[in-house]
Q: What sequence folds into this?
């Protein structure tokens, strides 16, 4: 595995938009057409893109792309509630942990769940939470300078005691076996959970939590206890637990003595220093740009399932967090691991790691909510996640605006009232419905109406539409279709939706005067609810209380007409 740096922003932009210019991808030599459903700037150096793939089966792909050369962005791991035992949904993870210095504006679920927390090696904010003591599990690591590493991690831990001498700690917060010395920390829980044989020693920190890089000093507060087991772990402290010859070593330690623990982290047998964040996964999907043979490594990898992955480009300046939805016939059936690798390769990754999938697969954006549709119909609580962050700020002043749409295709004589996003000086998305916008365009596109908020598209061809907020401007291409080239028409009828926008957790209503079928779609075009108004109710409650903040499309159809309404949940 490699660490990689420095790519120009122009090149990053070209990679980000490569999927737009590509009409087809090949996944294991099978061709798929690729359609971009949405492409949104969500934070410093970071976009979120949603794709529809059509081939022998249908797939929906959701991913973030982050330029790590942006000084206002970083990558961090969250452990649910800052411990190894808790489970929290991905959207709730940022609030569950103790970090007031960063805003976690996008993320995915990470490692598989094991009996002692996440399966693989885990480091958070420079602290070792857990190490994997075997082989065959992988990880992604991030150092203090945002350099990326991936592959098979292995960690050694050197214990130096004035009374016991030197010894090797096998692992952190792992199950203890014969002749092994394990270090337990308070991140595991209140006790070690060990059996009665062996020796255990309690300690408290002298200079903070267990460091993932450098030496940690500890002081013995509970003298060696023999053949008791399940020792209480001091608050914010540690327990050394050994059996066999390792028990004989730590039995020499004395109450009050200070000892040291120093880790050394290897990726594929190469020492890596300054690593502050790490989370596990299995298997590696890509290495050195090559799709690996993976489908025999875990029993579910040959199957079409929801999947989550992380990957990065050849010099490590661009990281991608990705989810492929699955178990949704006709919408997205999921992928085997080699198709997942091919998708990551098509997006410009040369290194990629498989995270936990199935019902755990979740891609979350702070201001837009969960972007994919979890296969179980609701969010699964998981152990940890990998997040894109930015330094905490209270800046709510709009310094940049962008269209929510990355492009627009309309029929001749259609009107278009765009939604505009607002960003602060740091590049964070802070407003998903900027008001007081004024539109402008050439006569070749159409005529501006409704106090500058709507364009009547009565021109022809593709032309630029500009939105302005004071001195701030942004543009997108709008294509007007005519005749047989027109997109599906949207006839009107007497239907209204209110309130709109609606606050998260509150109720919205449709007023209508006909039998109709109502479909609600999320921002990626996925059907999330279907309601039939067969009793000609004139006021119909919509299931908006369960919707996360973001944009939705409400389609109202009867025998003769259809109306499309954009619903905003704030």
A:
């Amino acid at each position: 595995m490699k660490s990689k740096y420095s790519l120009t922003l122009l090149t990053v932009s070209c990679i980000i938009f490569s999927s737009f210019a590509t009409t087809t991808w090949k996944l294991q030599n099978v061709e798929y057409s690729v359609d971009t459903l949405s492409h949104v700037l969500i934070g410093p150096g970071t976009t979120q893109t949603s794709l529809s793939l059509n081939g022998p089966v249908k797939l929906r792909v959701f991913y973030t792309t982050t330029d790590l050369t942006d000084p206002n962005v970083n990558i961090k791991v969250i452990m649910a509630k800052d411990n190894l035992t808790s489970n929290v949904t991905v959207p709730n993870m940022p609030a569950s942990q103790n970090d007031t210095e960063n805003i976690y504006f996008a993320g995915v679920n990470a490692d598989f769940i094991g009996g002692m927390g996440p399966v693989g090696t885990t480091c958070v904010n420079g602290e070792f939470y857990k190490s994997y003591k075997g082989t065959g599990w992988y990880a992604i690591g991030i150092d203090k300078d945002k350099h990326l590493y991936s592959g098979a991690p292995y960690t050694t831990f050197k214990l130096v005691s004035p009374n016991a001498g030197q010894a090797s700690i096998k692992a952190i917060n792992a199950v203890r076996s014969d002749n092994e010395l394990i270090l337990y920390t308070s991140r595991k829980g209140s006790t070690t959970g060990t059996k009665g044989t062996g020796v255990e020693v309690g300690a408290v920190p002298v200079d903070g939590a267990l460091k993932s890089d450098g030496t940690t000093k500890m002081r013995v507060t509970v003298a060696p206890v023999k053949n008791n087991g399940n020792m209480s772990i001091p608050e914010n402290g540690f327990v050394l637990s050994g059996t066999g010859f390792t028990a004989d070593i730590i039995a020499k330690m004395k109450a009050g003595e200070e000892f040291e623990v120093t880790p050394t982290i290897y990726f594929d047998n190469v020492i890596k220093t300054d690593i502050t964040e790490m989370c596990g996964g299995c298997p590696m999907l890509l290495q050195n740009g090559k799709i690996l043979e993976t489908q025999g490594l875990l029993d579910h990898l040959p199957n079409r399932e929801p999947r989550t992955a992380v990957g990065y480009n050849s010099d490590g300046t661009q990281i991608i967090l990705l989810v492929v939805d699955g178990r949704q016939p006709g919408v997205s059936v999921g992928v085997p691991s080699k198709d997942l690798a091919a998708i990551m390769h098509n997006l410009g990754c040369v290194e990629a790691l498989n995270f936990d999938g199935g019902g755990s697969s979740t891609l979350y954006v702070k201001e837009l909510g969960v972007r994919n549709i979890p296969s179980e119909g609701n969010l699964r609580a998981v152990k940890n996640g990998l997040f894109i962050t930015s330094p905490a700020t209270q800046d709510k002043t709009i310094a940049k605006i962008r269209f929510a749409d990355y492009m627009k295709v309309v029929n001749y004589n259609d009107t278009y009232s765009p939604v505009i996003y607002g960003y602060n000086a740091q590049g964070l998305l802070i407003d998903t419905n900027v008001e007081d916008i004024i539109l402008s365009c050439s006569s070749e596109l159409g005529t501006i109406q409704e106090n500058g908020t709507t364009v009547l598209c009565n021109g022809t061809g593709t032309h630029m539409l500009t939105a302005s907020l004071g001195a701030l401007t942004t543009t997108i291409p709008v294509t007007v279709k005519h005749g047989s080239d027109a997109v599906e028409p949207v006839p009107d009828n007497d239907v209204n939706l209110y309130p709109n926008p609606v606050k998260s957790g509150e109720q919205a209503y449709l007023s209508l005067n006909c039998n109709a079928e109502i479909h609600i779609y999320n921002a990626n075009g996925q059907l999330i609810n279907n309601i039939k108004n067969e009793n000609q109710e004139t006021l119909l409650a919509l299931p908006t209380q369960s919707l996360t903040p973001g944009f939705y499309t409400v389609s109202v159809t009867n025998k003769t007409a259809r109306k499309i309404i954009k619903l905003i949940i704030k």
The domain at 400-485 is CATH 2.60.40.10 (Immunoglobulin-like).
